[in-house]
């Protein structure tokens, strides 16, 4: 599904990524670990088309994203990629249902279809009783699960998660981790997860260890 070849990235004079090669197959859960500053988030942002590499290739299902125009890339991102960040980034003035629907509306899908799917996803995530709550009226775990529904609304090929449980207590973190693996087991959802959480990293099919801008080892279970 995703092939990455020889990615390099510099910020000013700092060489942050120094030749990353990587392949991710459909239905895989891959975790990326490593010390702070190793380049994990930078790599995730490049894989997720939120940032561009200085050199190297990122190919999604045979499509080289470097050859896409900005508009094509934005459309591709909206349709095929889901994101979950440490801080949920939900819009404070919108309800859980509205937040979950937004990428569906941006994709130009029919309103009713998007709303039905959002209700179904929020229900699956245990949030049927929170559809009309705003983020400030929900717990941290509920907010993050709403962000998961938002990430899933356009049935993405792949979800990129950057420290998804970094802001949750251990019970809510465990629940979120269980949700990821349920989505993988039931829907073959692919995940790439940057995390400092050893439990989450250890649950993945493969763990990539980054150091100073390179993948220095890979652990497969
Ligand atoms: N937009 C930017 N401009 C300049 N330097 C940056 C930028 N983004 C990241 N960096 C630098 O690149 C290096 C790698 O950052 P990155 O966020 O990828 O590391 P990380 O492994 O995800 O770290 P952490 O675990 O702390 O999140 C760091 O030294 C960081 O300061």
From TrEMBL:
Pfam families, A to Z: ABC_tran
Domain ABC transporter: from-to ranges: 2-221
Any one GO cellular component localisation term in the record: plasma membrane
GO molecular function, one term: transmembrane transporter activity
GO biological process, one term: protein localization to outer membrane
InterPro entries: AAA+_ATPase, ABC_transporter-like_ATP-bd, ABC_transpr_LolD-like, MacB-like_ATP-bd, P-loop_NTPase
Keywords: ATP-binding, Cell membrane, Membrane, Nucleotide-binding, Translocase, Transport
SUPFAM superfamilies: P-loop containing nucleoside triphosphate hydrolases
CDD domains membership: ABC_MJ0796_LolCDE_FtsE
Official protein name in the record: ABC transporter ATP-binding protein
Originating organism: Pontibacter cellulosilyticus
Lineage, highest ranks first: Bacteria, Pseudomonadati, Bacteroidota, Cytophagia, Cytophagales
């Amino acid at each position: 599904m995703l092939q990455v070849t020889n990615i390099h990235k510099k910020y000013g004079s700092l060489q942050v990524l120094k030749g990353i090669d990587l392949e991710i197959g459909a239905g895989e859960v891959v975790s990326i670990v490593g010390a702070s500053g190793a380049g994990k988030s930078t790599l995730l942002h490049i894989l997720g088309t939120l940032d561009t590499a200085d050199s190297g290739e990122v190919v999604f299902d045979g499509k080289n994203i470097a050859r896409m125009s900005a508009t094509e890339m934005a459309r591709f991102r909206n349709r095929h990629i889901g994101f979950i960040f440490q801080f949920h980034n939900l819009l404070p003035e919108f309800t859980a249902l509205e937040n979950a629907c937004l990428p569906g509306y941006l994709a130009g899908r029919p309103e009713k279809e998007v709303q039905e799917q959002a209700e179904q996803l929020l229900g699956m995530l245990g949030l049927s009783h929170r559809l009309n709550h705003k983020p400030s009226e929900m717990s941290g775990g509920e907010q993050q699960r709403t962000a998961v529904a938002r990430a899933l609304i356009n049935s993405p090929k792949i979800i990129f998660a950057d420290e998804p449980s970094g802001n949750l207590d251990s019970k809510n973190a465990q629940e979120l981790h269980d949700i990821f693996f349920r989505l993988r087991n039931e829907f073959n959802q692919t995940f790439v997860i940057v995390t400092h959480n050893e439990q989450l990293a250890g649950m993945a099919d493969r763990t990539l260890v980054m150091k100073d801008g390179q993948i220095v080892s890979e652990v497969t279970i």
